[in-house]
Write the structure tokens for this entry.
Amino acid sequence: MTRPPVFDRAAFARQTGGDASLCGEIIQMFLEDCPVRVEEIRAAIGAGDAAALTSAAHALKGSAAYLSAGVLRACAADLERAGRERRLDAAPALLLALDAAVAELLPELQTAHDE
């Protein structure tokens, strides 16, 4: 299986109709929202709250999909599934993968935003 791209700029540009200003605004909103969503996921796991995990992971998955951030979208989908299936024992390892995906994605987005 091929690993999805960390950030597919071409797909994101298509998603936004090639509007550079819109791309910049969406990236900025994501850069502000992503840490909040990750913290919601972390708190839900810590509290053993499967419903909150499902909700927060679903929101992050949607944002990542719109942004064409394939690795993060896949990690968020895994966490959403774990929450929906109440498999909270799997969540800490999935959170590590999510953290790694965020750490890889955010610098790419910052670079794209600054261009």
The mean pLDDT is 95.
